[in-house]
Design a protein that fits this description.
- This protein has 429 residues and is of the alpha/beta class.
- It has three domains: 215 residues, Rossmann fold; 89 residues, Tyrosyl-Transfer RNA Synthetase, CATH 1.10.240; 79 residues, Roll (Structural Genomics Hypothetical 15.5 Kd Protein In mrcA-pckA Intergenic Region, Chain A), CATH 3.10.290.10.
- The protein contains 19 helices and 15 strands.
- The chain has a six-stranded mixed beta sheet with strand order 1-6-5-2-3-4, sandwiched between helices. Strands 9-15-14-11-12 form a five-stranded mixed beta sheet. It has a two-stranded antiparallel sheet with strand order 7-8.
- α12 packs antiparallel against α15.
- The longest helix has 20 residues.
- The chain is globular, with a radius of gyration of 25 Å.
- 38% of the residues are buried.
Length: 429
Amino acid sequence: MITTSVYDVFCERGFMEQVTDEPQVRDILGNSSVTCYIGFDPTATSLHIGSLVPIMSLAHMQRNGHRPIALVGGGTGLIGDPSGKTEMRQILTKEQIDHNARCLQNQLSRYIDFAQEKALLLNNAHWLTRLNYIEFLRDIGRHFSVNRMLAAESYKMRLEKGLNFIEFNYMLLQAYDFLYLFDNYNCIIQMGGNDQWGNMVAGIELIRRIDGKSAYCMTFPLIATSTGHKMGKTEKGTVWLDAELTPPYDYYQYWINTEDGDVGRFLALFTFLPMKEIEEAKTLAAERLNMAKAVLAFEATKITHGAEAAAEAWRASCRLFHSPPVDEDLFPSSTIPRTPVTGDSSAIPSVTKKREEMAPGISVTDLFCEADLCASRGEAKRLIAQGGLYVQERPVRSIEERIGLEAMNDRGEIHLRKGKKKHFIVFVR
């Protein structure tokens, strides 16, 4: 049952970039239940924050009465998508692709409810790997103009450095995916990042030529921060959705360090909070804006890692940064804890050492490297000279310093810090 037009939700929250036949798509999404799909490339065992906009769009489709298909590209992953790439992607083995596809299927289940076929989780390897090449060229390839394909942005940017023939087939395969889903699952809308526009339009054209019917597509913006940085990139590298690759505490810290100008936009894109509350957040400043960042971090972490992990990360962050609890009147729809902080530090990166190991003291450079706060002793020495490393909030003054039992607090902890935001705890037992 359709209660609210998801098209209006997308427009209000900042998802929309391009759409084919906008009046028709708006009418369809507001008056009927449809099936849509987005493809996910299984080049790694986990998706990352850069995939969150399409993931959240599928979740919004489901919440507004539509049926989403999350398509894992186990077949197209064997080829490699040239879109947005200046060089050919690394070719993975079938075994690697299959393993990655299984990981992504489990991961997507956190965001979308696949019970009772309210959403579908498919792998295009199930049909693409069974194609006969000669028949595919005769039945599908003849509908594609090489001149039009070369005009697509996904290919144009690669022509200067060289476009491999295997990648040149990618548009045909993605278009065939749309045709297959249209014919077998009544899927009439494809969605995805704006770099996929050419491939999507090719699928619409293929459906029109072969079936004589209409299909549609819409794209979402490729998100960058307000200062132009790529979404999901930090000094430590990619921010993954897998807790083993990016722990919930680090994930929370990524969001709470959102730049001031992005808080309202990110609340709209990456949480399900009502837009009325989000619009009010855009007017906040100083401490109240920091509260909004805490809500963004909590809600985003809860969606990806669950409420318990989000609460642990919140408590740990509050303890380290002495943040006050969120105002009762700020974001009433959020489930962020409103009670005083209990001092829980379980979510902060840590290691446990024996007292006898710490008794003689450990070189400060070795300890910060072991904590993964410094990549090398050279970096540790440089940061010490710059006053950027701290032990129990005391700046480290010398590379010759050794950290031992005398550095512990009354809870048997040694708190290490790099700069303003990177923390680590050594538990001494």
